[in-house]
Design a protein that fits this description.
single chain; alpha/beta; TIM Barrel; 8-stranded parallel beta barrel; 3-stranded antiparallel sheet; 38% helix; globular; PYR_CT; transferase; LeuA_allosteric_dom_sf; metal-binding; EC 2.3.3.13
Length: 517
């Protein structure tokens, strides 16, 4: 199915790797980006915006590597209106089978006056020049009018018409600051469809931010008004309050096909897997009451609801858990479970591991099974997630021994490897966690400040694994790290080390001026 020939087909443009990564703390390394990109392509995402190539060498490399590996998805790279940005994006996208250059400039009076310090005629000329220049490298060019929802209509129509005339095949109208409301945004889309004479030569796209909690509602209103591409992220990840959530857009279109008779190419049974992967990699936990992918999304506690569910699930469920990849397990795991059963369980949970990763996970599973009588699916997910994207880490955990209690002193004896070299230190602190973090500081000196330390149990019971989230800040850059272990202090150290490794990746990143959209 093609959006150009099927007017009911909605193009799903995922920007988790670009706009999602702009969320404070959500830095991803190359291996993590490649894992997410592979899963996005497998689940049927049409366009993957892999990064902003001129932002850093790391972003360039990520776009380039995703472009090399993608087989079916369009791979997009973001660029401002200048030739240097477009050159860098084009170079990064060279290996792509289906490259797209996504170029943008601000068009609202506020942004033109105070951010760009340019007159409307200068901005209009930049639109024409940037799109025409990008067309030298690919025939798939997308143009975005940053702060489009607050742009004067006459000027917006003029810019859109000129961008299409210069060769843009997709026109994106972002609600950059999350200011608009559904009826207003729908009217904006209808206005463009009615007033721009060559609008039929491009696909209209929307990109909504969630500052007022309306990103999904605005996106769906725009689709009903005639937009045919939606830009979104897994779990609604993104700067400030985030972006429109891919899973909510897709499941709303599927569940309410009577009201919105449109289709996407997304395999919805992979949604839960994608959500968990992005949550694990970024360290952004999904709130329990989050639509579609929250832990409580299909939980029913009210007696009236439970009674109705037992009689007919449709009384209180508008979609099935299985439709988003939440399948009830038939395999109970324990200390006597073998490697084949473990492999089957992982496949059931949506994990496909290579032999080395499987052997490592199986060893850790056996260790955990010796400590816990009952292993839940969540235990195995946490166990595997704890190793996701960490095999290229500079700093690695080896062992920890702590002495704690009310009498003190609380001490932590920690062993790490840093770039393969073994290091050890013993430190005291105000409690075992503080002592352990002081030991990390002694072995890996840094200036990062601890902004968040959060612990929650993966399952019920006193023998539950702990999952810890740590947020570090250094010179305005924030990163999240996660760690899981049956020992809370070990999980805390793993989370802190995970965050430090991410900080090493993020240090080289420098967001260019006027990066938004």
């Amino acid at each position: 199915m093609n959006a150009a020939t099927d007017t009911n087909r909605i193009v799903i443009f995922d920007t988790t790797l670009r706009d999602g990564e702009q969320s404070p703390g959500a830095s991803m390394n190359l291996e993590e980006k490649l894992q997410i990109a592979a899963l996005l392509e497998e689940m049927g995402v049409d366009v993957i915006e892999a990064g902003f190539p001129i932002a850093s060498n790391g972003d360039f490399e990520a776009v380039n590597e995703v472009a090399k590996r993608a087989k079916t998805a369009i791979i997009a790279g973001l660029a401002r209106a200048g030739q240097k940005d477009i050159d860098r994006a084009a170079e990064a996208l060279k290996p792509a089978a289906r490259p797209r250059i996504h170029t943008f400039i601000s068009t609202s009076p506020l942004h033109m006056k105070y951010k760009l310090r340019q007159e409307p005629d200068q901005v209009h000329q930049a639109v024409v020049d940037s799109v025409a220049y990008a067309r030298r490298f690919t025939d798939d060019v997308e143009w975005s009018c940053e702060d489009g929802s607050r742009t004067e209509h006459d000027f917006l129509c003029r810019c859109v018409e000129s961008a299409i005339k210069a060769g843009a095949r997709t026109i994106n109208v972002p609600d950059t600051v999350g200011y608009t409301v559904p009826d207003e945004y729908a009217a904006l889309i209808e206005m463009l469809l009615n007033r721009v004479p060559n609008i039929d030569k491009a696909i209209l796209s929307v990109h909504c931010h969630n500052d007022l909690g309306l990103a999904v509602a605005n996106s769906l209103a725009a689709v009903k008004a005639g937009a045919r591409q939606v830009e979104c992220t897994i779990n609604g990840l993104g700067e400030r309050a985030g972006n429109a959530a891919l899973e909510e857009i897709v499941m709303a279109l599927r569940t309410r096909n009577d009201s919105m008779p449109f289709q996407t190419g997304i395999d919805t049974t992979m949604i839960t897997r994608a959500s968990k992967l992005v949550s694990t990699i970024t360290g952004f936990a999904v709130q329990p009451n989050k639509a579609i992918v929250g832990a409580n999304a299909f939980a029913h506690e009210s007696g009236i609801h439970q009674d109705g569910m037992l009689k007919n699930a449709q009384t209180y469920e508008i979609m099935t858990p299985e439709s988003v990849g939440l399948n009830k397990s038939n395999i109970v795991m324990g200390k006597h479970s073998g490697r084949n059963a473990f492999r089957t369980k992982l496949a059931e949970l949506g994990f496909e591991l290579g032999d080395n990763a499987l052997n490592d996970a199986f060893t850790r599973f056996k260790d955990l099974a010796d400590k816990k009588k009952t292993l839940f699916d969540e235990d195995i997910v946490a166990l595997v997630d704890d190793a996701v994207g960490k095999h290229n880490d500079h700093i690695r955990f080896v062992s920890l021994q702590v002495a704690c209690g009310s009498k003190g002193p609380q001490t932590a004896a920690l062993e790490l490897t840093v770039d393969g070299a073994p290091l050890a230190a013993t430190q005291q602190g105000n409690g075992p966690v503080d002592a352990a973090f002081n030991a990390i500081q002694a072995l890996c000196p840094h200036e990062a400040k601890l902004q968040l330390y959060q612990v929650h149990a993966v399952t019920e019971g006193t023998d539950a694994q702990a999952k810890v989230t740590v947020r570090l800040e250094e010179k305005g850059k924030t990163v999240n790290g996660q760690g899981a272990d049956s020992d809370t202090i070990v999980a805390s150290v793993k989370a802190y080390i995970h965050a430090l490794n991410k900080l090493l990746t993020k240090r080289e990143k420098k967001a260019p001026e006027a990066l938004s959209a």
